[in-house]
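Whiteboard transcription, Tuesday session. T.W. wrote the structure tokens on the left side:
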């Protein structure tokens, strides 16, 4: 098999560095990167726009099924998510979406729709996917499963720096509260809760630089997929 068929699942709590690391790993291996959190965020955004409550499971399921989601990589390497043809990359990171996304993504039928799409995308292999249930539900046969963690304090610090650069004026404590709340919700839900797959490799990134985490995953990928240099 060739290098570009490897499937890598990266799961972990909010702010553990999943998307930054996953993007770089995908780039280094020349394979696709799929941000599954962005998909749940997009469905949440659409539900908010249409005034559908997170408790209205029936409407949310229909809405998820009717939403067209497409990732496009721009010339500068950044990933953009188009929802029904509209670039929603910035809007899906807004505070109101972040506040509501855990409730929407706890709806089993919303998950069914999105997981199916994620599995189709991964069907060809050659993908790094990040989320909460990738190693456990979406890609249980992934060649490599990583579970990224970091202390709450460090995760809040990272997310705060990221959001400050985008004009956020709130405090680190507010961010920490949001991360804690979402982690509890994501880990406590009945369907596909956030948890490491039994065969995943845990990496605590609290004291590691991004490059070090990427390096470690690349190293692991060459062990778990030894045919990749052929
Ligand atoms: O980037 P951040 O850690 O803030 O979160 P995200 O990856 O954008 O995911 C946002 C939310 O979507 C999470 O808090 C989960 O509620 C949900 N999610 C999920 O349920 N399953 C996934 N595979 C990915 C995200």
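and on the right, the sequence the group agreed on:
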């Amino acid at each position: 098999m060739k290098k570009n068929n490897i499937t890598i699942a990266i799961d972990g709590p909010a702010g553990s560095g999943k998307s930054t690391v996953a993007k770089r790993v995908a780039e280094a291996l020349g394979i696709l990167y799929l941000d599954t959190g962005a998909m749940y965020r997009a469905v949440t955004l659409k539900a908010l726009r249409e005034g559908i409550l997170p408790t209205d499971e029936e409407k949310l399921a229909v809405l998820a099924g009717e939403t067209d989601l497409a990732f496009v990589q721009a010339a500068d390497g950044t990933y953009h998510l188009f929802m029904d043809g509209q670039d929603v990359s910035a809007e899906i990171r807004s505070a109101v979406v972040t506040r509501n996304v855990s409730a929407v993504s706890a709806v089993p039928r919303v998950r069914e729709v999105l997981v199916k799409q994620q599995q189709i995308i991964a069907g060809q292999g050659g993908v790094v996917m990040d989320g909460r249930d990738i190693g456990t539900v979406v890609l249980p046969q992934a060649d490599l499963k990583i579970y990224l963690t970091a202390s709450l304090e460090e995760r809040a610090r990272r997310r705060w720096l990221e959001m400050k650069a985008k004009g956020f004026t709130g405090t680190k404590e507010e961010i920490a509260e949001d991360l804690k709340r979402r982690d509890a919700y994501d880990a406590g839900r009945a369907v596909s809760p956030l948890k490491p797959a039994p065969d995943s490799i845990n990496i605590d990134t609290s004291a590691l630089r991004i490059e070090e985490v990427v390096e470690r995953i690349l190293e692991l990928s060459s062990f778990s997929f030894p045919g990749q240099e052929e």
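Someone added at the bottom: The chain has a mean pLDDT of 94.
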